[in-house]
Amino acid sequence: MRDPARQDTTQNDAILAGVAAAALGVVVAAAVATWCAAAVTGHGHGSPIGWIKALVDGQTGWSTAATVVLILEAVAIVAAAGYGGWRWWQWDKSRARIDRKAKYMSTRRDIAPYAQRAATKDAERLGLTTPGLPLGKSIVGRAVMYSLWEWSMACVVGTRGGKTSCLAVPRILAAPGPVVATSVRPDLVYDTKVGREMIGTAWTLDLQGIVREKVQPGLPDGGSDWYWPILSDVTSYSRSEELVDVLSAAVMSADARTDAYFNSASRALLAGLQLAAALEGLEYTQVYAWTADPGLSGDHESPFEVLTRHGYGLVATDIQAKMDLTSKQRDGVYAGAQEWISFMKSPEIARWVVSDGPGERRRRFDAAAFVRSTDTLYLLSKGQGGSGGRAIVGALTQSVMRAGEEVAALQGGRLQVPLVLELDEAANVCRIPGLPDKFTFYGGLGIIVSTYFQNPAQPEECWGVNGWRQILSSCNALLIGRGIRDEKFLPAIVEMIGARHFMQKSRSRGRGGATTSDSPHSEQIVPVSELVSLDTGRCILHVSGAKPIVVAMQHWSTDPDLNEKVTTSRAVYMPDREKPASEGERPVAWLPAKESA
Questions:
Q1: Are 552 and 537 in contact (CB under 8 A)?
Q2: Burial of 377 (0-12, 13-18, 19+ CB in 10 A)
Q3: Residues 126 and 190 in one domain
Q4: How far apart are CA 520 and CA 525, in angstroms?
């Protein structure tokens, strides 16, 4: 917190210095003009003071030519000053409102650890050559800002606030290693696919035909040229439980009211059935068949027998106990499990997670190999109304995260090349119940997680109030952008930004005459009303243990290299009917405020 007296003194000193500089400028300009006028007319005396003294003593005279020259010079000086003032007024009028508050939040010293020089040095400590993932430019000092290679980040930015064009796209293209990118829209793929294909293979999971024909040529909506065996991660009962958690979270919110008995029993049942199928090398279609046939009337081996044969006697006994329940109880338990995997009834979704059999020609996705590569995994789903899609997206993301943990352990506790996860619309399409816990240690493993939300209600609905609070308290960086209207969240941000302290003068008049006194005052640097109307192209960055920083978000089109990659990618993958009028053109809704000098 800044000292009130010190801040007030600094401001007064700055004002006095400005007045002195202006006065000196006027004197110098007048002196130079007078000297030039005398020199041009042949009456120069080496200095303005000498010429004026000679004029007063009558040693020289003043000519009409000198008058004309002096007037012209005065007009030129006034015009130059007027033009400079007009340009300053134009700049001041066009800059973002929040820019005027930036100096009260942080200084150049506060910003330096996240600027290019310090970020590069920190990256070298980890054996990396790139400084980090871009964030934008600081208003104070106009330094290019980076999130460091041990950071996790939560980003809350409203609709059309620049999440994709100013953050996700530049960060995906800046990643030196594998990238997982989630989204509900195709633009993330259109903008980055060519750039990422320059260094590795692009895997696009398009469960509902979001990117369509140009990204997946020759395939129908929901078609696939690769698949991921969803049971490949189920190597133990606990791993099976983790998969069940993700599949159920795709259907239920964190605060959903459920029957404790049936919910717990359905979870245990599905975990056991998944484990049985994985142990036998069966496809996930068998798991669904077991849930649809509690009486095992079909032509398939009992999961009880499979689990017993592989040494999971207790799990087998638990499943048998559920099969022996009364028909009403058993149907309720099995129905709960079946609801969570109902996506298997949709062939366009199921084909992504099961093999076509012995004649399979598609590529098989291997999470462990992916983590060691420079590939990109695009995971697309429509979120709300697409629980099957987000079930697969969440499960595959969790598989990659788990593989990242295992490979990091083999590489000395940290991935040699970071695994970057850009989880746009994370609460809609990537509902991993354990994700809030990962924020506390993933950065140290070299797994860089960035989650993007449009409002605080999204993560609260997904992970509950405590889960959202855990993300806020554990993430290394919190980024707040425009378009947020939340009466609980914004006051907390106001307190986080802090107050501005200053000395206020007051005058009073009495019998003894007028008196002036100074008293300390304070006010919130950025009130709630200004956070609600935060300028487009601006965000507030809060790093753990540091002061808030106002950041100017940088659209991909402002960087020549990014602009070339994005426009090329759009030309290749964006359907012709959706191309903008001119390449590199910014969306109409994107009209960022002018950067401050």
A1: yes
A2: buried
A3: yes
A4: 15
Q: How far apart are CA 258 and CA 324, in angstroms?
A: 23
Q: Is residue 525 a contact partner of residue 499, using CB atoms and an 8 Å limit?
A: yes
Structural domain total, the chain? 3
pLDDT digits (tens, 9 = 90+) for 290-348: 998 876 655 667 899 999 999 999 999 999 999 888 888 998 999 999 999 999 998 88
What long-range pairs does 295-300 form, CB within 8 A, spacing at least 24? 295/323, 296/323
User: Residue 474 above 80 pLDDT?
Assistant: yes
Residue 153, helix vs strand vs coil: strand
The Cα–Cα gap between 146 and 65 comes to: 60
CB atoms within 10 A of CB 193: 25
521 and 557: one domain? yes
Helices (H), 502-559: 528-532
Tokens representing 320? 């048998």
Round to whole Å and give the CA distance between 525 and 314. 61
Q: In 3D, which of 429, 455, 479, 433 has the Cα closest to residue 182?
A: 429
Cβ-contact 105, 524 below 8 angstroms: no
If asked whether residues 334 and 375 sit together in one domain, one would say: no
The answer, yes or no, to whether residue 48 has pLDDT greater than 90, is no
From 326, 350, 374, give the residue that closes a domain: 350
In sequence order, what are the residues at sequence separation of 6 or more whose Cβ sits closer than 8 angstroms to the Cβ of residue 438?
152, 401, 447, 449
Does the model's pTM come out above 0.70?
yes
Looking up residue 446, the CATH number of its domain turns out to be: 3.40.50.300
Q: How far is CA 332 from the centre of its chain?
A: 42
Residue 103 lies in a domain: no
Question: pLDDT, tens digit, for every residue of 380-411?
Answer: 988 655 567 889 999 999 999 999 999 999 99
Parent domain of 137: 108-228+353-578
| 358 shares a domain with 345 | no
- Amino acid, single-letter form, for residue 29: A
Say if 163 falls within a structural domain: yes
* Statement to judge: residues 439 and 571 lie in one domain: yes
Pair (73, 213) in one structural domain: no
Report the 10 Å Cβ neighbour count for 381.
28
Chosen domain end from 311, 329, 350: 350
C-alpha neighbours within 13 Å on the C-beta side of residue 327: 2
Query: Who contacts 315 (Cβ-Cβ below 8 Å, separation ≥6)?
Result: 237, 271, 272, 275, 307
* Whether residue 138 is found in the same domain as residue 262: no
Q: How many CA atoms lie within 13 A of 37 on its CB side?
A: 23
DSSP code per residue over 235-261: SSHHHHHHHHHHHHHTTS-TT----HH
The answer on 415 and 558 residing in a single domain is yes
In whole angstroms, what is the distance from residue 120 CA to residue 130 CA?
6
Q: Is residue 25 part of a domain?
A: yes
Distance CA 462, CA 426 (A): 9
Q: Say if 262 falls within a structural domain.
A: yes
Cα(120)–Cα(137) distance, integer angstroms? 16
Q: How distant is the alpha carbon of residue 470 from its chain centre? A: 17
